[in-house]
Amino acid sequence: MPSPGHDATQLTRAERGWRAVPLLGWPLALGVAPLLLATGVPLCGFRHLTGQPCPLCGGTHACAALAQGDLMVAWQANPGLMPLFVIAAARAAQLAWEAWTGRRVTRWRIGPALWKAGGLFLIGSWALRLAGVL
What we know:
By secondary structure, the chain is mainly α. 63% of the residues lie in helices and 0% in strands. The N and C termini lie far apart (49 Å). The model has no long low-confidence stretch (mean pLDDT 87).
């Protein structure tokens, strides 16, 4: 609980640092994805064992396509991940803003409900892929 006179929207130095950490994930994922694909190693244990794609199958291909700026190929790799990528990018932008300014974003905060909606879209997309619709 903040002490009297403490601004609840103000971030501590440690909080600012932790908000900057996820910003490293985007370049890392986009940079490593093409390297993983070049190895030829099966990336999905679920697909390797069952022959069916998991909900995240195509995610590495999607990241590699996004690294090249090809949104259509990324969508074709796994359409269910695209909303989650957008939500993650928006959340990363919020965290970057908070790290830069030292203040919490109180309006338009990306919260659990949006992540759940993205997850439901992913599962629905997966079900359609399994049914052969997508």
